[in-house]
Fold this protein.
Amino acid sequence: MHTDSASITRLAAQQEITEVLYRYCRGLDRMDRALADTVWHPDGTADYGPDYRGPAAGFLDFVWPYHAQLAGHSHLVSNALIDVDDAAGTAASETYVSVWLRTRPADGLVTDLFHRGRYVDRWSRRAGVWAIDHRAYVGDLYREVTLSAEATAPPSGRRDDTDPSYEVFR
């Protein structure tokens, strides 16, 4: 089987973009702001509907305190379709996202919020680095469930650099 260099270049770009998508989830879930800041280009923008539209750094400023007050959260991306125009150094992607947010116990209860939607992103490669120019979040499904705090297991993951994953990446 013969694979031409254009196919290899396209596949490499798709993999680089996929890893940026993963870094976004890791940055938010581990509360690693420095990592989350690498996802967009410095002039990148974000459109998360009526709650936030503007500079990507401003979105992170907006969402960070909200995530910090939660007991935990998990972002999972899948079904990434990525179209790369290598000659132009641009790409477009649609990636499904599932988000699970858990509130801290209050009055013996916790609330789990489930969001399912898609990240619709425009990308560019600048100085050899792929990052998002613009993200639009499209919400598809939402569910909220309240549970007894005693019925939930304490998390073993941590939302900082003491999480076990940081040890293997050092």
